[in-house]
Structures are given as C-alpha cells and as structure tokens.
Amino acid sequence: MCWLLPGLLAPFVARAQTWQQDPVLSRLLVHQLVQDRAGLLWVAADEGLFRYDGYELVPLSALATLPPGFSFDRAVVLALDGQQRLWIGSSRGLFRLRQKHLEQIPLPGVGTAPVVVNSLLLHPRSGALWVGYADQAVATFPAPDRPGRRVPLALGTPAVWLGTADDSAVWVVSAAHRVAYCAPHRGRVRPYQPRAELRPLAGTAPLQLIGTRSLYQEQPDGTLRQVLRWLPGLDEANFVPGQQGGGWQWVVAGQLVQLRSQPGAALPRVQLSAAAFERAGQLPRQYTVFTDANGLRWSHSSWQRGCFKQRAGAEAIEALPSRPLARYSTRAITRLPDGRLLVAAYGATLVQPADSPQASLRPFPLTENGHPSEAIPLDISVTPAGQVVFAEENHPFGLLDYRSGRLRRLALPPDEVAFTSSLCVQRDSTGTMWGGSSRGLFRLDLRQERATRYRRPGRPAPLPFDGQEIRELAAAPGGWLWLVTSGGLYRLHPATGRLEHYGATEPGARHLPTDDLLCAWPAADGGVWVGSRPAGLLWVQPGRGLRRQITTADGLPSNTVATVLANTPNQLWCGTFAGLVRYDVRRGRVAVLNETDGLADAELNRQSAWRAPDGALYFGGVGGLHRVLPARFAEGKQPVPRLLLGSYTQHHSRPDSIRTYYLPGRLPMARPLTLAPADAFIEFSLALTDYLAPEQARFEYRLPGSSDERWRPVGSTHVLSLRGLPAGAYQVELRGVSGRGVPATNQLRVPLRVEAVWWRQPWAWLLAAGLVGATLYGLHRRRLARVRQVERLRSRIAADLHDEVGTLLTRVSLQAELLRQQPAEAGPVLERLLSNSRQAAGTMRDIVWGIDAQADTVGALLDRMRDHLDQSAAPAGLATELHVRGLRDAQPLPPELRQHLYLIFKEAVSNAARHAQGASRLDVTLARESGWLTLLVQNDGQPTGAATRSGMGRRNMQQRAGLLGGTLVAEARPQGFVVQLRVPF
C-alpha cells in the first residue's frame, strides 16, 4: 500500500485562514446551501426552507402561496434546475418552487404521501433529476417536467448521497454505507465491505473513493485498499463533501480538507488548513463546505448548529504569531540593520529572523545600565549609518545597540529636568534627526548623544507647540517638517524658523475640524495625510489647507485613524480602532479589512505601522502584528459582487398597515411601483452577493428628474426609505460597494410612480380653475347687467328731463321774452324771470349731462368744458385755452369722477370770471401722469377778497375732492390765482 505518513504531509499543509461565524445562519441547523442565478442563498434547515441575502432570513411562507395549514417542518436537500426552479427534498416529500407557486411532485410508489427525501442530484450531462427516498429504490425524472420512474436497488436503507458517474448514471450511497452504481433503468450494488461512508470519485480508473480521512482504490478482485491518508483516525459517518469544480472539500477534526485531482498523477493532491469550529469538550463533527459564486466558502454540519464562512484564495493579511507569547499588543516596528524585524510590544520586545517573513516572533531582551529594561519604545528610526534611535514612553530619547540589546539615553540640558515623555523620532530631508515629546521639539545630536530643545533662529521665545504633545513628525521636501500635535498641525522650516499652524481655531484656509491629531504621512508634492481622533482622515496642502476629509460617512469603520502609510501615491493604508482601511485616492473608494480578512483583532494601535522596502506593510494592534501584502489585494483579483433588491415595504397610512413584497433579486421590473397618496413611505431592502461582511457594505441612490440628482448615501443600513416625494414618475437608481471597496458589477433602476392626493391631481386643478373661472365670469356678467341697467335708467332720466323739464323751461323763457316787449313797468320783473329761467335751463342741462351714461368718456368731458368756457369766460373778456396731456377722447371715465371733476372745473372758472380783477387770460390743463389725474385752472388777475375767503364754493370743491380721494389747492400766486386738483386715476 502507498501510505503517505503524516510526516510527509508537510508540503500539503496550507497556512491557517480565518473563519467567521455567520450570526444569522448559525441560529439554524443547516443541511444544505444553494445559490440561485441572482446570487441569493437558499437554506434547507431543520426549521424549514429560507432565502438569505446576508441580512434577513425569509421563510417560504413569505415567498410563496402555501396550502392552508401547510408548512415545512424540515427541509433536507435542495437542487436548482436550468430554469432556476428550486427542488426541495423534505420530511414531507418532494416539492418544486416555481416563482411564487409551490407544488408537490408525486414520487413513484408513494405518490404524495409523506416520505423523507434524503438526497437530490440534477445530473449535469443528462439533465435528469435523481431522488433518494426509499429503502429499496431511487427515482429518476428524465426531465423536470416529466413523471418520475422507480429504479430498484437492494440497498436495505434509503439513499443518503447521490453523485455523478461518468455517463448518465449516478453513484448511490445508503445510510448503511453500501455503494451502488445506478443507470436510468436499473442499479447494481458494489460488493464493498462497509467502511463508514465513502464517496466514489467520478472519472477515476481504477475507481477511487474518499472518506473523511483517507482515500481508497478499487482492486481487481472488487475489494478496497487505502492508498492515501491525510489525517489520523478512522473515517466517520455523516460525510457530505462539497464539490468545487473538479475538487472536493470538507471539514473534519478542525481541518479544512481540499482534494484536487492532478493531470497525469495517480493520486489527487490534498491540502489542509485549520478550521477549528468545535467548542471545547464537544465531539468532532463533519462539516460540508459550499463555495458560492463570489468565492466565499460556507461550512455547516447537519448535526451541529453554526454556519461559518471564509474568503477563498490567497490572503492579503498574515497574522504573525509570537512565542512564547500567545497574544501581544504592539507599538513600534522597524527593520534592524542586520535584517531582523524589531517589534516593540507591551510587556516584551520581539524580533523576527531576517528573510523569514512568516516566522514566529521571539523575545529580544533589552538591558539598561547593566540591568534588564522594561522600556516600551513608541517609535524607532534607523539612520543610514546603522544607528537605532527610539522614543520611549515616560523616558527621554535613546539609542539601541541592536547586537546586544543595550539601551543608552541621550543627555538633556540641565533646564529640562521636567521632561516626561519622548513620543516620536524622525530624520528630515537634510539628514537632521528630530524628536517629538510631551514638552516640544528636540534636535537629536547622535554623535554627541544629546538632545536640545529647538528654538527659531534669532527668536528665543517659546514656540506655540512647546506645551503640546508632538505625537508624530513627518519630513517634507525642502527641509520642512510636519508636526502632528494635540493642538493641531504645524508646518515648520527649522533652518529659517518659518511656522504655519492648521487647526480648529484658525480661520479660512488653515481651519481644521479638530486639533486632536494622531499621525501623518507626507506626500511627494509637500502635502500631508493626517489621521485624527474624532474627524477621520484629512488631506492638507500647504497654503490651501484642508482639501479632503474621509469619515465614517465615506466608509471608514471608525473616525479614529491611528496610523497612515502609502503603498503608492494613489493608495493609502490606514490603521483605525475598528479595522484596517485601504483608501483609493484617485477613485475615492474605501475598503475595510477586519477579522474576516485575517486580522487577529480589528483594533490597531497608534504609531504601530511600518512600510518595508519590499512593499510589504506591517500593522500592529491589540491582537499582535500583521503583515499586509498589497499586491494580493489588487482590485482586479477581488470578487465583484452583484447588487440585489430583495424586497420592498410600503406603509399604508389608511388603514395603518405595513406590507412587504419579496422580489427575486433581479430587475428590471415589469411595472412601476406605485406610492399612493395614503402611503406614508416605501422602503427598499438592498444586498450584495459578497456575504463575508455585509454590515460593511455601503449603498447609494439618486432620483433623476428630481430637484437633487446627486448620489446620496443610504447611511449605515441596507434599507433605503423614501418618503415625502412630490407627485410624479421617478427612476430610483441604486448602486453598492462592498466592504473591500469593490463596486457592484450592476446598478439597479426601480420605476416608481408617486400619485398625488386628489386635490393635487391635474384634473382637480383644472376643475378648480374652471369653477373659479365660471364664478368670476358669472359675477362679471351680473355686474355688467347691473351696469347696463343703471346706464339705461340714467339715459331714460336724462331723456325725460331733457324732453319734459327742458321743454317747459324753454317755454318759460320764450314767454318771458314776449312779456319783455310789453310796457316798461314790468321790465325789472321780467328781466329777473328771464335770467332765472335761463339759469334753470343751464343747470338742468348740467344735471342731464351728469347722469347721461353716454357721456362717460374723456371726450364728452372736454366738450362740456369747452362749452362752459365759451359761455362763462368769453363773455367776461377772458382769453381761454384748454390743454390736454396723457388722455384720449375715447378713454372711459367713471360717472362720479366725471361729474365731480366738471363741477369743480365749473366752480373754478366761475370764480375767475367774477372775482379776478384785471385778468385777461384763463388757462385750463387736464393731464394724467404716473397714476394721477390733475386739473389746473389758472388766471393772471388779482383776486378780490371774496375770491380769497373760504366761502361755500371752495368748501364744495374741497368736499368733492375728498370724495374722489384727492387733494385740492386754491391759492393766490405771483402770476395769478390757481386752483389745482389731483385725484388718483
């Protein structure tokens, strides 16, 4: 026999990789996982059938319409056919889920009677479905839509495993460990002596069978011989290996076993890596391993609760163990001149042999003054001359003899007796070594082995950072130094003393969101990346100040950035208190790595970071030291996830109810979603097919066509809630980025229509506008009817007065004329009668004109004014002239305005004709300017006392002006007497 002893297995033992427990699936007793084309996981468990998107388990009852009272009490096995229909083997028989319809499939010999289906296999070559469910037979369905056929097998116990054979046949293994080869029409049991549960390997000749710890090969006489062993002990039952391509994988005895065939080799290649799932005191369990489409391994056991996951492939993070320390917290890291890696940790100083990047760290004893030292270096720098300079907590700066481990302290001036702690060291571009402390900046003279406080040339006054902690120094081109302090960021040119401060108290370009800074990494252009405690990662440029800020809103796991290193000019690595971050400067993408990616603990320490000349990065934290290989983290090698829309939820406010609609994960949708007026909000449940750390995934959305079309983050959750959207049609666009900063390969567009409440609908606005228009039109028509009625009344009264009273007054005047021709004694009386009758006729004509609706125009008023000037001013010997500006003859005038205006004009002209002494001219102006109508009556005579007194005529004019809302002025001026009326028009 070709035994491969455990000592010969060393080349096949892989480095241990980190497994993480899935907190959701671990609540179930999982029997099988499958992944559909959209990327959603389907889970068969003792508790039933579920769909899983990394956040939520959705039971079958929420996905499909089930018969009344029906439920899956136990789902055992699953299979997906080419049409993405899910076949379910359960304790109640065989079922098929097609979209949202669940149907029971009759099994040959039992129909739809309750029976346990233990195994399912969809044959990759023939497309037939094989079912293991009975003691003496299996069933085959030549096509998923055709009835099944019973294939007899003398197994004695039900088939618990089905595997693909070389043709359209299958291998069958029973619960009693019997193996059979089964064609579509009949099967034959192989005469193997039962050896626990073995699984035949398709395509091997002679036939090979695998157990949990060994490989067997069929001999010509039909017996089995063990040809390979990878773990000690006996093969065990309940063995369900997972198949990945041409290989097999499973977990047993705390080891992930990967079995892969090798072209031209008689035996497959075996690879082992640690996968310690069992708790202390428990019996070992066999775990099935399933690899999903994104390269994530899932491991679960049908006999133990707990589901674990691990990212397959080369790891970018390697945790470096230490002996004899099981756990250590690191601070300073550097490479010594002899090639050894030096790590300062709390409680010990450790070294790793040169050229052995994966070797364990060993203690490196330190001595000082001939005695063992418990120094804890916070920062270490190696000069080109091979001197090792360090800053050590609670002590001054010092030098380390890396050969012997002896420490020597640098001398301080006598006035520095209050020195408390050295915090950092840095060599600038001129070769000068500097040290930052809790009391300011020191120049380190390594030749004289002394440290002196820095003072600006020619200015011995204390510097503003002398009383602050200088936590890190960063050298910039041109001899500049960046000082990261507890009071902000300083940029210092030691040779000239030039100093710039950037902080929370500075205005304008030098303002920073915080003064509590922790670390820095200088860029080639003179700028600097700064890590802070409460404000994330900051990018500061000289003279321009803060240019960029990255916080938890942008994907950081914590706003405390403890360390910063640059792998390339466009790729930063930051250690935070909640994980390691890779930041793509050019694309603005954040990738987060934590325990799921190999960190022993996600909390990383301040100053515990170092970049090796070969490009490897070292980060230390409370879980020890980690070696990071950026080359393995190239984005092109990262699995690209898909964005899924698992469900949407609507809240109906009337009635108050919430309903969730589950989707198949893939879009587009056939019809747009509708948000009715009574719906308070709609929520979309998003997910990525990268299930390793779903809590780190980030999602964004935007609403094209809205007032703000920018991409907006969903927040720290995977649920997008939309509420208060204006009515209209939208396309909700969605995108996602995994925790490693890899964007989803697809974007989703969800059509959404928001209906308006009834009074905001267009038809409601049109109806309201029509009603308002009809009402206004009715009111207008009613007003016009009343106006026409009044006009007809006025015209009739005017006509009646003219025809009746006017005729009567005319006859009186004619009779007075005839009487005047009689004897002289009646002359005075007749003269008075004739004068009064003429005045009454004129007054009557004025009244008739005032109420006549046909005279409501500017032209009619002007004609009347001209007639009055001819009848009153001309006989008095006054030359008259009427001026008109800004008015048209056809322009309408309100009756009240026309009548009062004419009567004021008439009174002013009459007063001028009677009382203006020596007047020879009378000018009348009627003008409209800037919304005012002005009447100006002016003569060039001297008024008599009667004209200047406030008599009845002036009072009447003032009252009429008040009724029109205007003003009237009547006064004597050097050029004559003026009456001016101004009314709004």
UniProtKB/TrEMBL annotation:
It catalyses: ATP + protein L-histidine = ADP + protein N-phospho-L-histidine. GO terms for molecular function: ATP binding; phosphorelay sensor kinase activity; protein dimerization activity. The keyword Kinase applies. Residues 899-984 form the Histidine kinase/HSP90-like ATPase domain. One of its GO terms (cellular component) is membrane. Signal peptide: none annotated. This is histidine kinase. The lineage of its organism: Bacteria, Pseudomonadati, Bacteroidota, Cytophagia, Cytophagales.
